[in-house]
């Protein structure tokens, strides 16, 4: 399917389908392609929205997790969305949790997959070295259980980010802020239904992180995906969509 990027003021985003809003938040090195499987499947019955988070362009003083939360809050207000189902991968999950804590009246439910907020081993313990394509390819592959998921296109995207000084500075700033912004003492305040979809072989936010989220989020359920790393919606899209659909159906029944 062809994806159309829309513009509303400073906000660039995808919006496909009609119905309840399913808002997807990508991670630090994330791209729209990360959510293609979700978009194709769920735009048939939901309004699927993917804001392009300005991680690489935002003012350096705003380059933080809280800066991204402010951006999402402004985006939601501008678009007039209500009763959102938030879905976040990696850093996007971190932003989703902080947004849900800040704007509880806006969020009906939340889905976290490989989320930061408690512990993360970013790209295998170090920021990719500029100019070293093989190293960046290895670190990108580290994200997945099956290294073949790290296509040349994906590696090239990460390589370009790491070799652009302005983008690299912002990525480091956001990553450091995420490390500082531990949510363990706040998650008891989250009362909405939460689905945790975790790769059983996730090395960046390992399975024990999913278990800890499950313990701290009182109204949560945890599902592990076998033979899967940090981005289940990319590595196991069909299984991910089945798990997500089951959760969304339960929300409809509860409503």
Strand % is 15-25%
Output the radius of gyration: 17 Å
Q: What is the name of the CATH topology?
A: Rossmann fold
Mean pLDDT: 92
Distance from N terminus to C terminus (CA atoms, Å) equals 32 Å
Shape: globular
DSSP summary: helix tally: 9
What does the largest sheet look like?
8 strands, mixed
Amount of helix: 40-55%
Reported CATH architecture: 3-Layer(aba) Sandwich
Question: CATH top level?
Answer: Alpha Beta
Low-confidence stretches: none
The CATH superfamily is identified as Alpha/Beta hydrolase fold, catalytic domain
Spell the H/E element sequence: EEEHEHEHEHHHEHEHH
Number of domains: 1
How many DSSP E strands? 8
Structural class based on helices, strands and sheet pairing:
alpha/beta
Task: Describe what you observe in this structure.
The structure is a single chain. This protein is an alpha/beta fold and 255 residues long. It contains 9 helices and 8 strands. The chain has helices at residues 36-42, 65-79, 91-102, 133-141, 152-162, 165-180, 207-216, 232-235, 237-254; strands at 6-8, 11-16, 21-25, 47-51, 84-89, 107-113, 194-199, 220-225. It has an 8-stranded mixed beta sheet with strand order 1-2-4-3-5-6-7-8, with helices on both faces. The longest helix is centred in the C-terminal third of the chain and has 18 residues, at 237-254. The mean pLDDT is 92.
